[in-house]
Design goal:
It is a single chain. A hairpin with a 2-residue loop joins strand 8 and strand 9. By secondary structure, this protein is of the alpha+beta class. It has 8 helices and 14 strands. Helix 1 (18-26) packs parallel to helix 5 (116-138). Strands 1, 2, 5, 11, 12 and 13 form a 6-stranded mixed β-sheet that branches. A 6-stranded mixed β-sheet has the order 6-14-10-7-9-8, with helices on both faces. Helix content is 25%, strand content 27%. The termini are far apart. The chain has a single domain, classed as Major capsid protein gp5 fold.
Length: 309
């Protein structure tokens, strides 16, 4: 049924789009909690410099001696991908719920409030944030359905030639999750063992299985531990990231994992277009444009475990 609802077409571009693009791209759990290092204003590529050294400390002598002393400067390139959201919805869907709730009146002769465009964009931003959270981790990794850009797990999998540091033999359960994570921890290189800046990354399901295991062992009050109760594993803080797939875990420093975006750019754009003035329909089109990409600075210092098919 047609309605008399109207909406003024709105357009936000460049810096004007910043509140909405930031909310969409930067509000996923992983990014919002600073579980990875975020690089903003990446137009296309950003070079991440890494430095390694050997033989720089030696016995004292009067002569200058740089024999066997080496500094190796390497780089990893973070490339962002141009992304967009194109969505069309019928105004009638909102007339029956949101508009009615806001006005408390029948919708037949209502006009959409001035902030209706903001409401639509906020709704869209939440969906984008969810997609970014999952793509950031599992984009193009194994059989993932998130394919808009390579996620951190795909970057690591490629760097490790498709072989995880630990191949989990079985899916995680409350009975085996501790043993599985201990196996992953045993693969840490010497320079990361005991480093308090190293974190264990798992998803919500794995974190819940770990809570169950702790409860069964008597380390948590069974059935009474808060869902957001801080978790530690043998001295390493656990970062819970919804975007990580099941049966996957990772040890790394947050400053080793990078997410790049471009939230201050003319490319960033949010539009809300009322199609009633062009084709006579009751549809609203929403368009969002932004950039996103990931990189791992030193893959050998990110210890990855998953079930290798």
């Amino acid at each position: 049924m047609a309605t008399n609802l109207t909406i003024s077409s709105s357009s936000y571009a460049g810096e004007l789009a910043l509140p909405y693009i930031s909310a969409a791209v930067l509000s996923g759990d992983t990014i919002a909690n600073n579980y990875v290092t975020v690089k903003e204003n990446v137009k296309y590529k950003m070079v991440l410099k890494t430095l390694a050294s050997t033989g720089i400390v030696k016995a004292w002598g009067c002569d200058f001696d740089n024999a066997d002393s080496t500094l190796t400067l390497a780089e990893r390139v973070l490339t962002v991908t141009d992304l967009k959201v194109n969505l069309e919805v019928c105004k009638d869907q909102f007339a029956k719920d949101w508009e009615a709730a806001q006005t408390g009146r029948g919708f037949a002769n209502d006009t959409i409030p001035a902030n209706f465009a903001d409401f639509l964009i906020a709704h869209l931003s939440g969906k984008v944030a969810e997609n970014i959270e999952y793509t950031l981790w599992q984009g193009n990794f194994e059989s993932s359905s998130y394919t808009s850009f390579n996620g951190i797990l795909k970057v690591l999998d490629t760097a490790k030639s498709g072989t995880p540091d630990v191949d989990f033999a079985n899916a995680f359960t409350a009975a085996n999750v501790i043993a599985s994570l201990e196996t992953l921890m045993s693969a840490l290189p010497a320079e990361l063992i005991g480093d308090t800046t190293v974190k264990l990354y798992v998803n919500r399901k794995t974190a819940q299985l770990y809570r169950q295991a702790l409860s069964a062992l008597g380390y948590l009050q069974q059935f009474n531990a808060a869902a957001n109760y801080p978790l530690m594993f043998d001295g390493y803080e656990i970062y819970v990231c919804p975007g990580i797939p099941d049966n996957v875990a990772l040890f790394s420093k947050p400053e080793n994992l990078f997410f790049g975006t471009d939230v201050v750019s003319d490319f960033n754009e949010v539009k809300v277009v009322d199609m009633s003035t062009t084709d006579g329909s009751d549809n609203i089109r929403m368009v969002m444009k932004f950039r996103a990409g990931t990189q791992v600075a030193i893959p050998t210092q990110a210890i990855l475990g998953f079930m290798n098919p």
